[in-house]
């Protein structure tokens, strides 16, 4: 009945795509909010927990080429139904795990589901954007950010209200399944078949797009993982309040993405990438060079605004290029971007060990500047 009602909504394909991005962010944040309970339940050390997180990352990297294979054979609709359902099923199982081996296996499967969903929903988004013939990708990614904020809020609210982690994740999964049921009528059933392999190394413009995404995912991961340490150790903010940097960054990125489609339509993708990169660079420089914690928070907000629309624009470009088939290109770009998320904080940590955290963060500034130069070689849509 819910699906029948949903089919009567205008632009159901856009609504379904937004809901799927929201679900992906919601599920990711719900898992992250459950980590302390899972760590305690399985009695893991910090090092062992790090290995568990690696299992999640490896699973996601497996899921990305799986998305390309399945989307080419079955279309977005069947793949999204299966992958999002798997996320909803596996999320409560994570808090039920009582041994490292059980948790590792569940995390690999959860990662595969997250990776498959991520690639497939971007393929769906590109198809919807092409059909609409106007920029929509930033708004879709904005709903991922919004879902992340809401997922963290809802799960934290449930847990602080005394609800058990199993019940809290069960409620979260129920919300995800309800949104999936409503979204199903809007998913694309088109199968884009092609001869040749279902995964290939990126080449030509796709490789450049992937490198740009790698850098901006790396920059995002750097702020999320290192902003608290920088505020605490270099700007004397108490550890309990050091999360303010992430809050400022996340709010700014969410707002930037939700408003991004209108901005891209008005200014053009090229101008948004250039201005966004320069704003992100200025945010890093402000946070690193000025001594007050308030200016650091301003810098993180500028980084969020600057980075907000660049990755969505690059995904749109990947879907419109002619060098590689669309699903293959999305898989390749997503994989490079996710490698940036996984490796970025570690690279910064290694640099911090050698030369100090500020010097390592200045290195990220140089990478963003390099990505800006590389982006000039990508064909982007002009202003409307």
TrEMBL record:
<dbReference type="GO" id="GO:0016020">
    <property type="term" value="C:membrane"/>
</dbReference>
<keyword id="KW-1133">Transmembrane helix</keyword>
<dbReference type="Pfam" id="PF07690">
    <property type="entry name" value="MFS_1"/>
</dbReference>
<feature type="transmembrane region" description="Helical">
    <location>
        <begin position="271"/>
        <end position="290"/>
    </location>
</feature>
<keyword id="KW-0812">Transmembrane</keyword>
<feature type="transmembrane region" description="Helical">
    <location>
        <begin position="103"/>
        <end position="121"/>
    </location>
</feature>
<feature type="transmembrane region" description="Helical">
    <location>
        <begin position="296"/>
        <end position="315"/>
    </location>
</feature>
<dbReference type="InterPro" id="IPR020846">
    <property type="entry name" value="MFS_dom"/>
</dbReference>
<feature type="transmembrane region" description="Helical">
    <location>
        <begin position="167"/>
        <end position="188"/>
    </location>
</feature>
<feature type="transmembrane region" description="Helical">
    <location>
        <begin position="354"/>
        <end position="374"/>
    </location>
</feature>
<dbReference type="InterPro" id="IPR051788">
    <property type="entry name" value="MFS_Transporter"/>
</dbReference>
<dbReference type="InterPro" id="IPR036259">
    <property type="entry name" value="MFS_trans_sf"/>
</dbReference>
<dbReference type="InterPro" id="IPR011701">
    <property type="entry name" value="MFS"/>
</dbReference>
<feature type="transmembrane region" description="Helical">
    <location>
        <begin position="142"/>
        <end position="161"/>
    </location>
</feature>
<feature type="transmembrane region" description="Helical">
    <location>
        <begin position="200"/>
        <end position="219"/>
    </location>
</feature>
<feature type="transmembrane region" description="Helical">
    <location>
        <begin position="48"/>
        <end position="67"/>
    </location>
</feature>
<feature type="transmembrane region" description="Helical">
    <location>
        <begin position="239"/>
        <end position="259"/>
    </location>
</feature>
<protein>
    <submittedName>
        <fullName>MFS transporter</fullName>
    </submittedName>
</protein>
<feature type="transmembrane region" description="Helical">
    <location>
        <begin position="327"/>
        <end position="348"/>
    </location>
</feature>
<dbReference type="GO" id="GO:0022857">
    <property type="term" value="F:transmembrane transporter activity"/>
</dbReference>
<feature type="transmembrane region" description="Helical">
    <location>
        <begin position="79"/>
        <end position="97"/>
    </location>
</feature>
<keyword id="KW-0472">Membrane</keyword>
<feature type="domain" description="Major facilitator superfamily (MFS) profile">
    <location>
        <begin position="205"/>
        <end position="384"/>
    </location>
</feature>
């Amino acid at each position: 009945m819910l699906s029948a009602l949903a089919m009567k909504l205008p632009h159901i394909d856009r609504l379904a795509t937004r809901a799927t991005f929201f679900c992906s962010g919601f599920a990711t944040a719900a898992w992250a909010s459950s980590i302390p309970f899972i760590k305690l339940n399985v009695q893991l050390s910090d090092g062992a927990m790090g290995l568990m997180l690696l299992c999640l990352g490896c699973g996601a990297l497996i899921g990305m080429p799986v998305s390309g294979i399945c989307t080419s054979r079955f279309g977005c609709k069947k793949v999204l139904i299966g992958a999002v359902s798997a996320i909803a099923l596996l999320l409560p199982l994570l808090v039920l795990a009582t041994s490292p081996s059980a948790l590792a296996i569940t995390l690999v499967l959860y990662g595969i589901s997250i990776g498959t969903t991520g690639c497939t929903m971007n393929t769906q988004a590109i198809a919807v954007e092409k059909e609409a013939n106007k920029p929509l990708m930033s708004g879709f990614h904005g709903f991922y950010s919004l879902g992340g904020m809401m997922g963290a809020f809802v799960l934290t609210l449930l847990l602080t209200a005394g609800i058990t982690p199993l019940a809290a994740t069960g409620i979260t999964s129920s919300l995800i399944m309800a949104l999936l049921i409503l979204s199903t009528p809007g998913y694309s059933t088109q199968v884009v078949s092609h001869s040749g392999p279902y995964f290939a190394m990126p080449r030509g413009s796709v490789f450049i797009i992937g490198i740009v995404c790698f850098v901006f995912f790396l920059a995002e991961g750097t702020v999320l993982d290192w902003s608290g340490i920088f505020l605490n150790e270099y700007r004397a903010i108490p550890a309990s309040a050091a999360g303010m940097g992430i809050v400022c960054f996340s709010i700014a990125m969410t707002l930037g993405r939700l408003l991004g489609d209108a901005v891209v339509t008005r200014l053009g993708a090229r101008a948004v990438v250039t201005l966004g990169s320069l704003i992100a660079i200025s945010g890093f420089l402000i946070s690193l060079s000025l001594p007050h914690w308030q200016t650091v928070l301003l810098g993180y907000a500028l980084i969020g605004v600057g980075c907000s629309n660049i990755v969505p624009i690059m995904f749109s470009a990947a879907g419109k290029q002619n060098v590689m088939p669309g699903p293959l290109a999305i898989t390749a770009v997503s994989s490079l971007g996710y490698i940036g998320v996984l490796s970025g904080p570690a690279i910064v940590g290694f640099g911090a060990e050698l030369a100090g955290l500020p010097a390592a963060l200045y290195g990220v500034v140089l990478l963003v500047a390099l990505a800006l130069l590389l982006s000039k070689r990508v064909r982007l849509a002009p202003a409307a």
